[in-house]
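ok new one. same drill as before - structure tokens go in, u give me an amino acid for every spot. 458 of them this time. try not to just spam alanines like last time pls lmao
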């Protein structure tokens, strides 16, 4: 059967390929789920089976955004503990999070995914690590929500086995035993992970953090991931307090601890990595360990400024993350493009920290690299999957910014005229086509109120 083609033309294009190729006015041809061609000027004449032709005048076309760190369940606990640092924030919210169930997890995932997809995310991930006893099939609920929304998805199946009675922060009934956590993680990989080129669902092994997980779970989790051929994810070096915790408990800093448990490597990425010294950055670069940079969450919790310019210079793979919406209430990744640039310019490198194009690369190709999918997504190149976003830049908000990439990164949030995932339309004229946004809003409000009542009742 002949391929069905979509033609997008007359738009500015930032391909984010290895050469940062851009076209002031160009075209992209999509054939079924793949990018067939891209270039300057108008699309080739005589294309067969063109089912849709889109005039992109006044728009910028980019690769779809790739989110590399999130906690979907936090959508229904937004706006709480707004003036806390990380540890106090966790202590304040764990008693609430420990009461989530399957219905809540599904609604929260729907809200998180809808907000990201509407803002240009075509590949999402969720680090879910709270599995209270008797809470139902939380992983299945989250994966189901992602399938409905129509985005590519990585579930980082998290776990915690260090509860309050063992010196951890979460309540004991919200953690799993070592054996249960490993068994449930392996079952999730076996049931859901797809390693095909155009996979919509992938699974990573993801114990939560050094202060909520035993050393044995870290070590055996890494062994499990490598035996199954999947990636590894966790939180690392987020706060000064975490560094102190690791030194007191393990006699070494976070990076050395991670290396001692098998948690450095090209199949690993870590969230935050705010407090990294030169030796830490060199270790990440040497091993190819990736970083999910979450500027808004780091600022919200007062964690600090990650050394992203130094990481990039050293060759560390870096992508962007929304992080959980209880520490980044907007829940949008496209705002992180701007915030990554601005926050990093407050650091040691000041105005030379990041450019607009580097910020766009973090949110696209960088994220694809961190998730191990750079050969499939993250840039506009023939043969890659047709995950594309067409940003509207011809309104008042961007009317006097000549450079479309600068307009997208530094200007107001641009509306999404079209978002494609594997050639399938997910957003049209700034609205989701796959799910009812109003219904999702109602559902998340209902579940947030139910969770608040359950928590208040003790």
């Amino acid at each position: 059967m002949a391929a069905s083609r979509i033609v997008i033309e007359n738009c500015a294009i930032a391909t984010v390929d290895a050469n940062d190729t851009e076209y002031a006015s160009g075209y992209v041809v999509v054939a079924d789920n793949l990018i067939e061609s891209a270039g300057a000027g108008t699309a080739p004449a005589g294309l067969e089976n063109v089912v849709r032709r889109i005039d992109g005048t006044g728009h910028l076309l980019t690769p779809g955004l790739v989110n590399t760190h999130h906690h979907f369940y936090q959508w229904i606990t937004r706006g709480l503990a707004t003036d806390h640092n990380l540890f106090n924030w966790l202590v304040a919210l764990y008693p609430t999070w420990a009461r989530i169930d399957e219905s809540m997890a599904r609604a929260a995932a729907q809200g998180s995914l809808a907000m990201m997809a509407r803002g240009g995310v075509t590949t999402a991930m969720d680090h879910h690590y709270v599995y209270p006893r008797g809470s139902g099939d939380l992983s299945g609920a989250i994966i189901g929500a992602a399938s409905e929304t129509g985005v590519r998805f990585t579930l980082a199946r998290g776990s915690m086995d260090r509860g309050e009675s063992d010196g951890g922060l979460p309540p004991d009934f919200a953690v799993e035993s070592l054996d249960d956590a490993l068994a449930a993680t392996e079952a999730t990989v076996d049931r859901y992970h797809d390693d095909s080129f155009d996979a919509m669902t992938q699974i990573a092994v993801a114990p939560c953090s050094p202060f909520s997980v035993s050393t044995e779970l870290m070590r055996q989790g890494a062994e499990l991931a490598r035996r199954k051929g999947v990636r590894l994810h966790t939180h690392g070096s987020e706060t000064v307090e975490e560094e102190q915790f690791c030194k007191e408990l393990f006699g070494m800093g976070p990076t050395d601890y991670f290396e001692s448990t098998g948690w450095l490597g090209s199949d690993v990425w870590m969230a935050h990595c705010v407090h990294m010294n030169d030796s830490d950055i060199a270790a990440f670069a040497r091993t190819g360990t990736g970083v999910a940079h979450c500027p808004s969450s780091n600022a919200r919790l007062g964690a600090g400024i990650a050394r992203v310019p130094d990481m990039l210079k050293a060759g560390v793979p870096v992508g962007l993350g929304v992080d959980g919406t209880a520490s980044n209430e907007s829940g949008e990744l496209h705002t992180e493009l701007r915030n990554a640039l601005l926050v990093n310019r407050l650091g040691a490198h000041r105005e030379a920290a990041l450019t607009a194009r580097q910020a766009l690369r973090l949110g696209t190709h960088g994220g694809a690299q961190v998730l191990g999918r750079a050969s499939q997504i993250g840039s506009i190149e023939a043969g890659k999957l047709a995950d594309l976003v067409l940003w509207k830049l011809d309104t008042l908000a961007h009317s006097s910014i000549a450079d479309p990439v600068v307009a997208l990164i530094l200007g107001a949030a641009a509306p999404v005229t079209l978002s494609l995932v594997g050639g399938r339309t997910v957003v049209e004229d700034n609205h989701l086509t796959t799910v009812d946004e109003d219904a999702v809003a109602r559902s998340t409000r209902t579940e947030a109120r139910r969770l608040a009542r359950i928590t208040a009742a003790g």
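The chain has a mean pLDDT of 96. and btw DSSP finds 14 helices and 17 strands in the chain.
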